[in-house]
Amino acid sequence: MSIQGIFRGLIFLLSLVAVAFLLRAIQLDSFLDKAWIDNEIRGHGLSGEVLLFVIGAVFVAVGLPRQIISFLAGYGLGFSEGFALALFATAGGCAITFSYARFLGRDLISRKFSGKIRQIDNFLAENPFKMTLLIRLLPAGSNLLTNLAAGVSKVGASPFVAGSVLGYVPQTAVFALLGSGIEVNPVWRIGLSVVLFVICGGIGMHLYRRYRRGKSLEVNEGKVPTESSGGAGIIQNKG
Q: Residue 16 — φ and ψ, nearest 5°?
């Protein structure tokens, strides 16, 4: 490993420690609430929106729940503006984490977890945009770990971020709607949010099953049935 690689690895580790201490000192997740939105965002125009965008991007970049930003943006700005700002802030956080891992942690993490990184590369390599969209639509998984893993893999930044943005849309809309207080019966608003959440999870599972089924077909593609004197067998198709 080169001296430059070692230096970048040390910077990566030290920066992780620094971020952990900073988060503990400022308690980022504790001051973001409705009262903060009322005092710092509402009525402050463009400056308030820029502040919420920056805070939201940092919030997402360090692995805190992006749904909170969507909810608070919906609460402070209404559904339409809140949804748009939360989506861009979440995309910004995604890009920050991806870039951080790619330019600082790639050498170190690739050496330590080469097998895992290879699995991620294999999964994303076929169609980075579609596979990233699939990951984002599934209801489970860590946003932070996905961004870090993609950053140290060989996937391109553009298809990964673009697929992430599209995949973020359903949950961002759900939580912006919940926070917005749109003049709809609360039961209907919550019910609609649940339906949207279930639909996006269902789409993700459907795409994942199609992906697995396609992989199964590829595995069996090189095999053809043949009759032998002892009964039916399988031979490898070398052509």
A: -60, -45
Instruction: Quick: pLDDT tens for 39-71.
Output: 889 888 999 999 999 999 998 998 888 988 999
Q: Residue 168 — pLDDT band, cuts 50, 70, 90?
A: very high
Query: Which ranges of the chain does DSSP label H, i.e. alpha helix?
Result: 3-26, 28-31, 34-40, 45-61, 66-77, 79-100, 106-112, 114-125, 128-137, 143-152, 157-180, 186-221
Residue 204 and residue 139 in contact, taking contact as beta carbons nearer than 8 Å = yes
Q: Which of 155, 163, 160, 175 is nearest to 137 (CA)?
A: 163
Query: In this structure, are residues 208 and 138 in contact, taking their beta carbons and an 8 Å threshold?
Result: yes
Predicted TM-score (pTM) of the model is 0.70
> Cβ contacts of residue 143 below 8 Å, gap of 6+?
60, 63, 66, 94
Band (pLDDT 50/70/90 cuts) for residue 84 is very high
**H or E stretch covering 227:** strand 223-228
pLDDT value at residue 228 = 42
Tokens at 104, concatenated: 């600082």
3-state secondary structure 115-158: HHHHHHHHHHHCCHHHHHHHHHHCCCCCHHHHHHHHHHCCCCHH
